[in-house]
Amino acid sequence: MQAAKRPVMRWLANLAAAMLLVALLPSTAGAAPPAAAPTSVQGIVSRVSDGDSVWLARPGKPPLEVRLRDIDAPELCQPWGVEARQALSELALNKVATLRITGLDQHGRTLGLLMLDELDVGRHLVEQGHAWSTRSRWDQGPLVKQEKVARALTRGLHAAPGAVQPREFRRVHGACAAANAGSAPAAEARPAPKR
């Protein structure tokens, strides 16, 4: 009986090895072309929408609505939202910046790293406690070390206990009222009612 099982076990082991090999080999049939290197554009930060979104004006071209990559700042209608926008304004508004474009976000905004000379604006905002490192289901994000330092030093939004990440805030309270989000003073910006 044992001798009869050996060929079956060997065949199963060979099948498993072949399947693993096929899974590890890069597929060329129907594969997407390799991702292009990020494109860089230069312009002037003409508007700050919130703590992680700006408009980049470029000579002779339409302005780009930009979502800063790797960070998630508080919503304008949540605690520290207005302060996060103010910090970004003080840092970047009306300054020449380079945007390293990496794609589009889920809302169609240009996604990228905003650089002021050699300063990564998003990283700086996380280091100063004005934003969190972006999270995914399995990862705490690329700037988690900077976020932990800001939290340990109680910088910015981490100074008050109970700071809530924007994703959780939106889940509980809904999105900020669109009419208030870009133009209203902090006292008037409130979550939109959930439906």
Molecular structure report:
The protein has a 5-stranded mixed β-barrel. It is 32% helix and 25% strand. It has helices at residues 2-24, 81-92, 121-127, 144-152, 166-173, 178-181, and strands at 39-50, 53-58, 61-68, 71-72, 96-104, 110-116, 119-120, 132-133. It has 195 residues and is an alpha+beta fold. It has a single domain (39-181), classed as OB fold (Dihydrolipoamide Acetyltransferase, E2P) (Beta Barrel), CATH 2.40.50.
> What is the strand content?
15-25%
The outline comes out as extended
Q: What's the alpha carbon Rg, rounded to whole Å?
A: 23 Å
Query: How many H/I helices?
Result: 6
Terminal Cα separation, in Å? 67 Å
Low-confidence spans: pLDDT under 50, at least 5 residues? Answer: 27-32, 179-190
Sequence of secondary-structure elements: HEEEEHEEEHEHHH
Helix content: 25-40%
Structural class: alpha+beta
Overall number of structural domains: 1
Structure summary, number of beta strands: 8
What's the CATH C level? Answer: Mainly Beta
Secondary-structure arrangement, i.e. CATH architecture: Beta Barrel
Mean pLDDT: 83
